[in-house]
Amino acid sequence: MKLPIAEEKLMELIWTNEKVFMKDLILLYPEPKPAKTTIATLLKRLQDKGFVGYTLYGNSREYYALKDKSNYFSNHLGGIIKNYFDDSALKFASFFTKSHKMTYEELEALKKIVDSEMKKTEK
Q1: How many whole angstroms separate alpha carbon 25 and alpha carbon 27?
Q2: Which of 12, 16, 51, 105 keeps 20 to 30 A from 70, CA to CA?
Q3: What is the pTM of this model?
Q4: Cα–Cα distance measured from residue 6 to residue 42, given in angstroms and rounded to the nearest whole number
Q5: Is residue 99 domain-shared with residue 49, that is, in the same domain?
Q6: CA separation for the pair 7, 44 (Å, rounded)
Q7: Residues 16 and 52 reside in one and the same domain
Q8: pLDDT grade, residue 27 (50/70/90)?
Q9: Packed helices 69-84 and 5-17: angle between N→C axes, nearest 10 degrees
């Protein structure tokens, strides 16, 4: 499930800070800051979708992520690869490396990752 941009931005704050209260989210949110009611609505939507949980301390709620960031983006990226690159990770990787003007150092780092993954698949 792909989240709308506003919900994704809020999730990013929660993922980064692990556990946060509403007052923390308001402080952490970049300018222009949304209204407290907007953040509350987004949190409710994220709860309904199973992305966010909370612990109640009196009248305050401490929010935390129920979905892992890497899994969320991996699933989203998988959808992009399936829909735009004929379900081919190779086509995606080729597009990505050619279109993002990677530096020599970045390409070397990517090559090390690929080499490492190749060793894992050797028999």
Answers
A1: 5
A2: 105
A3: 0.71
A4: 8
A5: no
A6: 10
A7: yes
A8: very high
A9: 140
Shared domain check, 105 and 55: no
DSSP string, 19-74: EEEHHHHHHHSPSSPPPHHHHHHHHHHHHHTTSEEEEEETTEEEEEESS-HHHHHH
Same domain for 18 and 60?
yes
Which of 109, 104, 106, 74 is CA-nearest to residue 92? 74
Q: Domain range spanning residue 57?
A: 5-65
In a domain, 9, yes or no: yes
CA distance 63 to 25: 10
Q: Residue 52 class from Cβ within 10 Å (0-12 exposed, 13-18 middle, 19+ buried)? A: buried
Give every strand in the sheet of 52-57, ordered side by side: 19-21, 60-65, 52-57
How many domains in the chain?
2
pLDDT of 103 strictly over 70: yes
Our CA dihedral for 11, 12, 18, 24, rounded to 10 degrees, sits at -80
